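Here is one chain, start to finish.
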Amino acid sequence: MVDVFSGRTLLTKDGEFVEPEEVLRNKVVGIYFSAGWCPPCRDFTPVLCDFYTELVEESEPPAQFEIVFISSDKSVDDMVEYYHDMHGDWLALPWSDDYKHELKQRYKITAVPKLVIVKENGDVITDKGRKQIRDRGLACFRSWLDAAEIFQNFKG
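Its structure:
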């Protein structure tokens, strides 16, 4: 995953800047294209929060999974409000980073919400992350992990 966000800075929910090479290494990554003005996004984001919490915050050891939120909000204030009010403790690309447009093209994003699950190098595991989480719950993570070809510590 280091490849996709290489040279970029990501943001934590606490407002700290972090290096992608450190926080995404050896992880399956969900790139979450979403916006606060979008009713289907506001419907799915709590489901994604529960999924993330169970996998990462309540598992021992934490699952090798991280989410990076790519905002389609209309302003930085809208993004911050949506991110803080509804999202889990995952990462975000800063709203002002125009790289979001490149990511939308690369992953063929034509509508939100969209959850693209990728390997460390950015190759797509599935662009149907949202559907798989709704249909299969936590079970879908095992298939993503197997496809990601990373060193595994996940027991689930």
